[in-house]
Amino acid sequence: MQADRSRPLALADQPPLTLGALRVEPATRQLHHRGVATTLEPRVMQVLVVLAREPGRVVGRQELIDRCWDGRVVGDNAINRVISRLRHLAAGLDDDAFAIESIARVGYRLTPPPGTPATAAAATGNTFAAATADSVGAATPPVTAVGSAATRGAGAAGRPAETATPASLRRRRWLVGAGVGTALAGSGALGIAMRIAERPAATPLDAQSVELRRLGELALRQGTYLAAAEAVDHFRVLCDKHGDRPEHWGLLALACAARRGFNVQQDVDPLGELTRTAAARALAADPHNADAAVALVMLRPLFRGWHGMETACTALLQQHPRNWMLLSTLARVHAETGRWRTAIPLLERALEAEPLLPSVSARRAFALWCVGRGDDAAVAFDDALERWRRHPLLWHRVLQFRLFSGRLDEAAAQLADERQRSYDENGLPREIARLAVQALAQPARAPLAEELAGAIARARTGGSMASQWALALLAAVGRIDQAFEMARVYYFGGAVGARLQPAPARLEMRATDLLFTPDTRVLRMDARFAELTAKLGLDDYWRVAGADPDHRRAAAG
User: Fold this and answer.
1) Whether the Cβ atoms of residue 231 and residue 163 lie closer than 8 Å to each other
2) Residues 6+ away with beta carbon under 8 Å from 468
3) b vs e for 128-154, b when ≥16 Cβ sit within 10 Å of the residue's Cβ?
4) What is the per-residue pLDDT for 167?
5) What's the pLDDT tens digit per position in 352-388?
6) What are phi and psi of 191, to 5 degrees?
7) Phi and psi dihedrals of 337, rounded to 5?
8) Which of 358, 384, 426, 557 has the smallest number of Cβ neighbours within 10 A?
9) What does the pLDDT look like over 244-280, one tens digit per residue?
10) What string of H, E and C letters represents the secondary structure of 245-265?
């Protein structure tokens, strides 16, 4: 037993356990309490399992690190945050709550609620690993929806908790097909079940295909250009081998749409065509395929198409209310139109459905900063960095937060740490990053600001990330005229110095969320800002949507 306490805890190998009326399912990261299901983050579930397996025993901090952090060096804050989350969870269980006691300079001890059997660690059925092994090669894909507390619990709608399906073939949380799963729980369950039964048996999945799908779904969650391209490759192979499975065509459509979003051109759009083709194949076989439907929505232009995208996402969310990609996309519409306050709940709903989303986690932390919750943003960024320190979007968002919130020492350390740097030279050249730290640390020194502005002008390449950094830095050091000139070129094309920048008519996306961040506040106070938003069409959107941006609401009191 002692040896077991030094090995990392694999959730997939852990049988369920009970704490009074609370049922803990480590393999699915689910807690079930009086008909309501809740999904925990992996680290939180690991700590809960370690403490709950032997209630009353004091578990040392080093044992927690060995078992839940794979022995990595982590600070006290990381453990404290997990314990705090478990205590917050227990507080919502009323009389069924367990308690976690801190033993000073030693560790923690869990006290179960009354009525918990002494053998809480006993298994109550087959292990998750065995269930997964039995499921490989199943004739038909599972139809039970898998998801977060909102997906699987009773929730506000009073739906009963659903049964988890094995990980090898089940739909992932963000693929939650409210289309099939929810329909089976409703009045039309018999008819849909009969139609599924009438379909020809799908090609059984071999072990390699199961692994390809797992890797593809994992890549798609990363929210990066390279990972999306990797997902496309994996799902292409799956469709070649198992073209009779609509879920694979839906995944391919979604991966193509995600990959396309990083570089969208209207005149040459092979990924757009592949998205439509794959989505059509999926929907022809399964009209309820959520992935295909979401992929088609993602083909819509976002820049200057905010209202159309918002309308499409909102309508589709009626059918798939727990689809993280839809929620994340709608949150982006709100952020791009200066509505950070309403973006945050959408991002949080997406993370409830699927907690392990680095890009969504980064955007939520950034949004917290944009609404003035700097301390909460710092905690959220620290949590995300603990998992995905080298994720490019997270790295840039953390640096932006640190630079423009007065955390310059942390920003300098981040830039200097080559081991943990996920660096995009096209996004923020190193020379400019280092000059920015110096200029922001000494705002009264005009030569530094001038040197920074000159470096930005020399390095300007027209890329989206480069433009966002340039605009924010110029505004932060008081170069307002240059910042507005940069905005004009970025959004409408033209010349900067000797460089001719493309007009955005050929592109479907230009980021506008950068106009509503704390670092560009000085621009919003200038009369030219209203002219810019009117020319961009943002004023038309606000009028049609009937929703003012945060800065107008704040000005109105």
Assistant:
1) no
2) 511, 514
3) bbebbeebeebeebbbbbbbbbbbbbe
4) 34
5) 999 889 999 999 999 999 999 999 999 999 999 888 8
6) -65, -45
7) -110, 20
8) 557
9) 899 999 999 999 999 988 765 555 578 889 999 999 9
10) CHHHHHHHHHHHHHHHCCCCE
Amino acid at 77: N
Instruction: With beta carbons less than 8 A apart as the criterion, state whether 143 and 186 touch.
Output: no
Provide the token pair at 233: 């490759």
- Could you give the CA distance from residue 452 to residue 375 in angstroms, rounded to a whole number? 29
pTM recorded for the entire structure: 0.64
First to last CA, the chain: 62
Residues 6+ apart with CB under 8 A from 63: 5, 6, 50, 107
Could you give the CA distance from residue 40 to residue 432 in angstroms, rounded to a whole number?
40
The two tokens of residue 115 are 């009525």
Question: What is the rounded distance in angstroms from the CA atom of residue 497 to the CA atom of residue 81?
Answer: 50
Q: Tokens 């320190």 label which residue? A: 389
| Neighbour-count burial of 109, counting CB atoms closer than 10 A to its CB (0-12 exposed, 13-18 middle, 19+ buried) | middle
* Structural tokens at position 120: 């809480």
d(CA 115, CA 522) in angstroms, rounded, equals 60
- Which range is most confident: 109-118, 417-426, 495-504? 109-118
Q: What is the pLDDT of residue 445?
A: 65
